[in-house]
Design the sequence.
């Protein structure tokens, strides 16, 4: 029996720069509380341009989780937070009933031709929190445990694993790990959570002998330990957790347990209702609703 339930190759999309979108997918719309998974870059941006900048846009009902391997982004939001996002740090923004943020490429990253490379995830908020207050939390790289397990070096970004616990505050049981492993090394992935997936960022691996190439998300079968073996030096992510409390609707940047909440958010953003979304100090641009 295979340890892999689904292999998701994702679709490359252009959002001003190329990203590979792994979730939601036809085979699996969620993994634990994760409802969205974009792999961005690596990409270099020209000096004196706004290439790669994500202008102010809204969210409801989710938490954005940004993690970089290289480069940097400057986060600004309607809470007044201004935070430079750097490799190894975790930035966890809970939208609740509404927030606006922008993410822009800093000038020094453009001028130095430093590749921007990272992941952006969305985590669905539980129903009792999806209409709560927005919040933002930044966790520096050294805040989260570094774990050596055999040949693997792990950075525990969220949840519990291998006897350690991340300080990152989550809204539901969540697992998120960044790992590196040398060619020929192995790592047992225990069945501590109901839903798990493995994503190879660079390199190549096998899962109980089945090949897993870079850029492919493997959804694992529940309830069994799985052996990851590196075929070359490999950078990988493990994500998952417990299932969310019911299905979610995802439209544009909005996630909600009901279509009514989505429609209400559309109306509020079209009207630029500051009582719902607020405004980012110093920002004058905004991304309008999609036509479709």
Sequence:
């Amino acid at each position: 029996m295979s340890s892999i339930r689904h292999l998701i190759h994702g679709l490359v999309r252009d959002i001003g720069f190329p990203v590979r979108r792994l979730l939601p997918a036809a085979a699996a719309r969620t993994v634990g509380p994760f409802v969205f998974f974009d792999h961005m870059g690596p990409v270099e941006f020209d000096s004196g341009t706004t290439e790669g900048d994500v202008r102010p846009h809204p969210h409801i009902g989710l938490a954005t989780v940004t993690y970089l391997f290289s480069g940097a982004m400057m986060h600004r939001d309607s809470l007044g937070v201004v935070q430079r996002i750097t490799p190894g740090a975790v930035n966890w923004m809970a939208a609740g009933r509404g927030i606006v943020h922008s993410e822009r490429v800093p000038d020094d990253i453009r001028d130095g031709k430093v590749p921007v490379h990272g992941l952006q995830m969305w985590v669905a908020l539980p129903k009792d929190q999806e209409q709560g207050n927005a919040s933002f939390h930044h966790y520096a790289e050294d805040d989260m445990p570094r774990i050596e397990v055999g040949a693997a070096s792990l950075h525990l970004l969220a949840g519990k694993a291998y006897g350690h616990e991340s300080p990152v505050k989550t809204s539901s049981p969540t697992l998120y790990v960044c790992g590196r492993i040398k060619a020929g090394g192995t790592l047992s992935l225990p069945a501590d959570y109901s839903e798990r997936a493995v994503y190879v960022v660079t390199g190549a691996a096998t899962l109980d002998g089945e090949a897993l190439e870079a850029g492919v998300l493997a959804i694992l079968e529940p309830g069994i330990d799985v052996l990851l073996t590196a075929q070359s030096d490999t950078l990988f992510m493990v994500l998952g957790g417990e299932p969310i409390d019911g299905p979610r609707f995802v439209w544009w940047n909005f996630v909600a347990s009901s279509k009514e909440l989505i429609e209400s958010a559309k109306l509020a953003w079209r009207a630029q209702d500051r009582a719902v979304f607020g405004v980012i100090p110093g920002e004058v641009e905004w991304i309008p609703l999609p036509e479709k």
In short: The chain has a mean pLDDT of 96.
